[in-house]
Amino acid sequence: MKKIVILMIAFGICLSDPGTDEKKDKACQVADSVGSCNIWSLTSVTQKVGELGEKVVNMAEKMTFLETRLQNTEKELLELRSLTGGSPQVAFSAALRDSGSGDIGPFTTATPLQYKKVFSNTGNSYNPSTGVFTAMVSGMYFFRFSMFNNLASTPNSLVSLTKNSEWLTSVWDTNGSDSNDMGSNAVVIPLKVGDNVFVQLHPNRLVYDDTMNYNTFSGFLLFTM
């Protein structure tokens, strides 16, 4: 308000005062100074408003991203709770072949066996395309697997239950004249979310299966932790 009054007085002197030229010059200088100050202030305010606008846009984008992540997390949580109304149930059982018969293997490297015939898969933690069970809930789990040898005069079978990259327990048959041998093994282990469990066929080994489903892989959650 003070700036406006000063500006008006200065302009009045500059235009109407019959005084000396020096007086007029000083008045006009005051008017120019006040006018320039107002223009600079307006420019500064405009710049600051623009900067604030950019910050608001950035904050809005971040909020949208966070809201999307929160919605996805809530959806996953609801899907997990919907399994049993709050208490997760996890159980699966599968056999090696869903059709046909014959040996599986040998492979030059250790290979997870893909149990394709799924009997049950509550919680969808087992993936028949990879043969891998992935823990969606931290807890204590039970796993069991069986192995039927390669149905040959010289057996050559070795499989291991594996957690991530750790061999837990194995079944093998690599000597003897009986070509109709099989065995099984089981464990109770703690798992954290994201841990993987699978049955691994060792390099240069093989197993036999047909529609009688001799080779199986099963597991279930005992309790959460």
From TrEMBL:
Keyword Coiled coil: yes
UniProt key word Isomerase: no
Alphabetized Pfam families for the sequence: C1q
Domain C1q as annotated: residue spans: 85-225
One GO cellular component term noted in the UniProt record for this chain: extracellular region
SUPFAM superfamilies: TNF-like (SSF49842)
Leader sequence segment: 1-16
Keywords: Coiled coil, Secreted, Signal
PROSITE patterns (alphabetical): C1Q (PS50871)
Subcellular localization: Secreted
Residues forming coiled coils: 56-83
Main location class: secreted
PANTHER family: CEREBELLIN 13-RELATED (PTHR22923:SF102), CEREBELLIN-RELATED (PTHR22923)
Protein name: Complement C1q-like protein 2
